[in-house]
Amino acid sequence: MDENDLKALNNIEEYGCHVLKVMEGEGEPSFSYSIGINKKQNKPDVVVLGLNSELAHSMVNNYKDRVIEGEVFEPGRYYSDFLEGFKVCFIKVSKKHFEKYFGWGLWLHNGDDFDMLQIVWPTTDGKWPWDRDKSEFYQWAQPILNEEGELNAI
């Protein structure tokens, strides 16, 4: 194990998860995701795509804290208190996306035997991924990681 592996394991023990921030790449948005929530709490880990890393990190930690307190997040429901003034919803991430996005999760679990939720956020003018008039940037910044790669209204 190297220093990064040990840091991740220590963060999981001390804080309940480790948050990874992945910078924007060629044709791919930035994203942040947790590892360790599934292992420690037996609840899904979580990913936020397309928001700045500080905001995404705080959303992941908010989710983790609420899970530790016993809150259960169901795919297809709206929740508040993640983004000031906006609701978010959760979707179950398909395992077909795990290799591309969640290498550290695969490492921690020695495979894909874990669950992941995506926190889906609206634009500042209230557009959601299922709205026809969403911008191309919004569509690019927040790919939908379910089986179909798209969402209908929740």
Automatic annotation (TrEMBL):
The protein's name in its UniProt record: Uncharacterized protein DUF4262
